[in-house]
Amino acid sequence: MIESLVFVVFGALLGTLGGLFGIGGGLIAIPVLGVWFGLDQQMAQGTALVMVVPNVMLALWRYHQRNRIEMRHVLPLACMGFCFAWLGSIWAVGIDAQSMRLGFVAFLIVLTLYNLVRMFAATTPPSAQMRYGWPWLAVLGAVSGTMGGLFGVGGAVVATPILTSLFGTTQVVAQGLSLALALPSTGVTLATYAFHHEVDWSIGLPLAVGGLLSISWGVKVAHALPERLLRGLFCGFLVLCAVLLALKV
Which sequence spans correspond to the domains of the chain? Predict the structure, then answer.
């Protein structure tokens, strides 16, 4: 009972972070489940997805309430994300845990460096109109879906910086669209991991309860923060996740 309450509290913290950064909270859950609770990489990813899927659903609804998400942008992202996440998740369950963990650390480091470059480089202001249409959104959905299927939660983290830098959206709009991409891809990835017995439901379900209790607050904070500060916090968050995972390698 006490252990379940600990996971609920932990899930609430992750839900706040997930709402703040539009990623469902799984990115930090995976290294913590691996380092502190001894789960191998695939089991940590599958267990984190139990929390991520309902968190993404609720966060997406909250983002849509504050910034209407256009279906013409969502459909190519979500459809391609779903298909390629399924392929990526099948690939993931066949890789040894150590190689998977090393790949995840490298993925986070590259993503952090990319976000840092964007923070300090001269950029054009965000536009109300997206710079590129559905063919390129479909490509983004395919790439992000593959990363999401492979690493469990990478899809939204890939999509968010690309949407702000190349497609010209604001940070909160990008995070909302990334959640729309993540919903079907995380669902099919969770199903694949569960089919291959890579989910610890006794940990994942309390995490999900805690996340649902707090994620709306995280979304509210995200919309109150200045754009540059939100991006800076996002970079710091990625560095923390990479360090936690590297400790386990």
Answer: 2-248
